[in-house]
Design brief:
344 residues; three-stranded antiparallel beta sheet; 9 helices; 12 strands; Rossmann fold; globular; single chain; Arc Repressor Mutant, subunit A
Amino acid sequence: MTELALFPDLDEGQSSNAIQEPVNLVPDWSSQEVENPLVMPEDIQPRKKFYNSLWLLFGRRGDGKSLLMTAVAKMMQRRYRDKGFYDRQIWANYDCKFADRADPFLLDWLMHEPWLAMNKLILIDEIADHLPSVRETSRENRDFANFVRQIRKTGSEMIMATQMPQEVSRKLLRQIDIFVRCRPLMAGRVVRAGVHDFWGGTSGNFRQREWPPRDEDEDSYFYVLNTNTCFGDYDTYEMQAAGYRDNREEMLKALGWNFETGEDEPKEEAPIIDITDGEMGKLIGSSVLDRYKDGYIFDVSKELWRIKGLDDDIRSTTEFVKRLRAEGFNVMQQHGKTLAEWKK
């Protein structure tokens, strides 16, 4: 299966098949190669601290801004699950298929109820349409800038995209950590990202720079490969309805968004189904397995807790593997781990 990959030091036109082994900062004392089991101060891995960041992707029309934003979010979602961070979610203001929440009114929620955005990766497309520099003193710009200034307290991060960064509210620009110039290669199968640490907060380089960021002034760059696997994860032709438009809801409906516009509208009640507890457990277990059918590889032992107890037939990893194979998953053994992947 072709997966998204990140190559920070790959030059254009080159390829690499090298596999980098993870660095183990703490010695494995069970190994026979370790003769003196003495823990040195430099061998102790310090406790990691979370440093959130805000990215602003920019480039001309069709330069792969939304594609790169979607690809990075998809990689991060896979990493969250691999590390067991199931409380971290992906929120987007565009129709991102794998996002935990895709809502065109996401900016409104963030401005008026910021306490809801805890441990989220937030994706905002066409940020200049919602928070333009020409409306610098508007209530929307001030509220969102206040949210961004305190975003560290929510444990969230944010990736935004726009064509012209100089058209974005200055209050927001001052909070951006990294500006990324996007450039698609090989018909969108690769996206080159030029990194600009404009304020010097990450690289420590506080030299004076020209605005907007120029390609020749980039601090670093990286490539995201196989971005063509994300073509179906969002609609590249989707339009954004600015928050200050009077006919915003009508425009969103015309664009195909389906949402409730009022509490007085009738809602269909779910039918009452009389089923046993065992049948309910199997239904819940099937719905949990459906979340893994998006094509990525996952660790069976780390996912066991999600459906353990929901089905009477699942009590151990062996029973979970049996259930996965029955549902059409491919189960394999790699480096002592049991991995599973959905068969397309």
